[in-house]
């Protein structure tokens, strides 16, 4: 019973509490507040989602930027490593290059294009000799005796005749010149193959050089490519000659080297002393508006002087004299009434200081050589020292040594081949340079007459090696082993070696033609020698 009453009371209380009329306002707004809350919650959710997307985008951008920076740092690091590696290889390459260059210079100074004297070394070179039949000793001896040896007497008679006439012509030249204004001409000297007794090809031509000097109070002051000033590679072997007063100090004042302003004067030299009339310099055969001796002006003066001298003495001779080459100042030809003629070169030169090295105005050029840098650049010739060296070495060689015979045979073969296939870049001077190198490299007993065949092969193989390397060094320039007895100027011994084959590097067409001519000469050597040799069973 009490439990039932309690339940009834509970139901009544619950009904009263939940009756809508008891709390009309609160219960009436509940549905509206719920919808607004839901709407705000959705808006909040949407804003949070957008914020989340923005934050995720920023984080992604930061990560991308970080990765880019990391990659850039890696690239920089790699480039630094590569640069370090490259610097290391560059330094290593420079060290190797310097070592090779030092070895090359030591090789040149110590051996100087030496063939080593070893037969094994020579055998390595002769690649072009494979399949070439070389004449034996008997054929070579017969060829030399029948074809070459007989010309020695003709050369001696021609030298004597030309020298006598040249002395007479120069004496007449001195008499027609003004001693106070014209150049002073000295005695002539014979150089070249005719005076070294290895000329074989006709016509025989004597080469005479004539030193000359300026009139007083002037003097020549020369400057060579190896005197300290920088000369371009194409001017190596050349020099310039300045005409100065004997009492003039060309190195003591800078007014002659520096261009002074119009309002500045040199206190040591007045304007009258430093400036010379243009006509005075031209009378001294200088290039226009300079003090440098002009080779073209010298050529014109010398030809005019020789013409005047011949007109004075022509009545004494029963032949005519004329210039045979227009571009050479002293290329003369004697014409006899019988129709025979004799050619010789009388070339003006300037002595270098107190030596026997000479500046030559015009030098016989080959297809290798290019034109002179200018008419104020003079070529240096060492012909007098070359003749003296051959004479000095000949005294130490066995009797009837074969060095001149080798050069004569090689010169004959090359000349005959050029007459068949046309001229090449090789000249007789190159062949003589090869002989000079081998004379210095090989002992005296190797030049005995019975070793003619072996030495001729050595010269051909040495020439082949030089052609292959495009290097044939001048015998005297840069050669520290020149005998002291010659009195050769030390400045040229200490100079850089002068490569006579340098033009081959610049002119590939001439090089190709020269190599082809040389190989053709080797193939035709036996035929050419047999053609001029009496048959030997």
TrEMBL record:
GO cellular component: nuclear outer membrane; plasma membrane
Domain Mab-21-like HhH/H2TH-like: 404-477
Subcellular location field: Cell membrane; Nucleus outer membrane
Keyword Coiled coil: yes
InterPro entries reported for this sequence: ITPRIP-like, Mab-21_HhH/H2TH-like, MAB21L/cGLR
Swiss-Prot/TrEMBL keywords: Cell membrane, Coiled coil, Glycoprotein, Membrane, Nucleus, Receptor, Signal, Transmembrane, Transmembrane helix
SMART domains registered for this protein in UniProt: Mab-21
Signal peptide: 1-15
Membrane topology: Single-pass type I membrane protein
Molecular function per GO: protein kinase inhibitor activity
Coiled-coil zones: 38-82
Family named by the database record: Belongs to the ITPRIP family.
Described purpose of this protein according to its UniProt entry: Enhances Ca(2+)-mediated inhibition of inositol 1,4,5-triphosphate receptor (ITPR) Ca(2+) release.
Annotated protein name in UniProt: Inositol 1,4,5-trisphosphate receptor-interacting protein
Source organism of this protein record: Charadrius vociferus
């Amino acid at each position: 019973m009490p439990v039932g009453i309690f339940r009834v009371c509970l139901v009544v209380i619950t009904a009263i509490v939940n009756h809508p009329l008891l709390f009309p306002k609160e219960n009436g707004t509940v549905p509206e507040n719920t919808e607004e809350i839901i709407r705000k919650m959705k808006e909040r959710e949407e804003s949070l989602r957008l914020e989340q997307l923005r934050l995720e985008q920023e984080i992604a951008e930061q990560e991308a930027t970080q990765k880019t920076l990391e990659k850039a740092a890696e690239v920089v690091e790699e480039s630094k490593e590569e640069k370090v590696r490259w610097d290391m290889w560059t330094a290593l390459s420079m060290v190797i290059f310097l070592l090779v260059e030092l070895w090359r210079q030591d090789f040149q100074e110590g051996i100087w294009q030496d063939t080593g004297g070893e037969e094994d070394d020579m055998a390595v070179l002769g690649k072009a000799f494979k399949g070439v039949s070389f004449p034996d000793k008997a054929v070579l001896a017969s060829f030399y005796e029948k074809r070459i040896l007989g010309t020695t007497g003709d050369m001696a008679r021609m030298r004597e005749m030309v020298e006598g006439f040249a002395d007479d012509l120069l004496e007449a030249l001195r008499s027609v010149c003004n001693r106070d204004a014209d150049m002073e001409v000295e005695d002539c000297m014979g150089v070249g193959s005719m005076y070294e007794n290895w000329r074989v090809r006709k016509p025989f031509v004597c080469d005479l050089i004539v030193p000359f000097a300026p009139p007083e109070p002037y003097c020549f002051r020369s400057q060579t490519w190896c005197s300290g000033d920088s000369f371009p590679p194409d001017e190596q072997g050349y020099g310039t000659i300045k005409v100065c007063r004997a009492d003039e100090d060309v190195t003591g004042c800078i007014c002659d080297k520096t261009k002074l302003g119009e309002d500045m004067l040199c206190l040591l030299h007045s304007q009258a002393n430093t400036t010379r009339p243009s006509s005075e310099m031209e009378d001294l055969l200088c290039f226009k508006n300079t003090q440098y001796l002009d080779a073209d002006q010298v050529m014109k003066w010398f030809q005019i002087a020789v013409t005047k001298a011949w007109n004075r003495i022509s009545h004494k001779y029963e032949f005519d004299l004329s210039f045979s080459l227009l571009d050479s100042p002293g290329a003369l030809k004697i014409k006899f009434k019988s129709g025979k003629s004799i050619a010789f070169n009388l070339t003006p030169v300037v002595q270098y200081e107190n030596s026997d090295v000479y500046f030559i105005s015009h030098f016989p050029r080959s297809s290798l050589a290019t034109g002179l840098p200018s008419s104020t650049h003079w070529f240096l010739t060492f012909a007098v020292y070359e003749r003296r060296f051959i004479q000095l070495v000949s005294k130490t060689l066995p009797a009837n040594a074969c060095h001149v015979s080798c050069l004569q045979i090689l010169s004959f073969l090359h000349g005959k081949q050029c007459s068949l296939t046309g001229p090449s870049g090789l000249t007789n001077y190159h062949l003589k340079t090869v002989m000079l190198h081998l004379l210095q490299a090989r002992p005296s007993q190797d030049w005995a007459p019975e070793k003619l065949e072996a030495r001729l092969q050595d010269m051909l193989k040495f020439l082949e090696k030089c052609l292959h390397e495009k290097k044939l060094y001048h015998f005297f320039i840069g050669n520290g082993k020149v005998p002291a007895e010659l009195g050769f100027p030390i400045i040229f011994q200490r100079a850089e070696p002068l490569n006579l084959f340098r033009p081959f590097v610049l002119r590939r067409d001439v090089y190709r033609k020269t190599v082809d001519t040389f190989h053709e000469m080797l193939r035709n050597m036996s035929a050419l020698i047999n053609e001029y040799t009496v048959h030997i069973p």
